[in-house]
User: What shape does this take?
Amino acid sequence: MRLAGERRLGAEPRAVWDFLMDPSRVKHCIPGCVDMQPVAADEFSAILDVPIPLLRGPYNARITVADAVRPEHCSLRLTSHTGFGDVAAEGSLVLSGQSGTTLLRFDGTLQLGRLTSGFGFGAKLLAAPAKMLLERFFACMDEQLRPRETTRPIM
Assistant: This one.
């Protein structure tokens, strides 16, 4: 299953990059992420319980960052072994800044073991929920990155 698109975020590319590379921040925006910890400078472990009935966990995942050029682009790889087979995802992120915002382009593939093999019925069933989860991630990330309004006390 291919997932590709772009999202405009309300922060500079460096802030977006720092967010994406900080597991303590990004785990709060991944739907179903129970925990995420660094393993090495470019590798993270996560416990996922994805809120889609066919993909219910929990299960362990390994996320690797490669070809990173801060804050412009990187490649990501996710691997996991689940009750419905091996999960493998690979993709790229490209960040470009404009007027205090970042255009984040993503392009990747997701293989969900037995669910997306064969005739591809599983991929068709999971495409809409996968896009919804991706949208929830980006909406959360954008909210976390936007500057907070400060209020002054009324005197």
The first helix runs from residue 13 to 20.
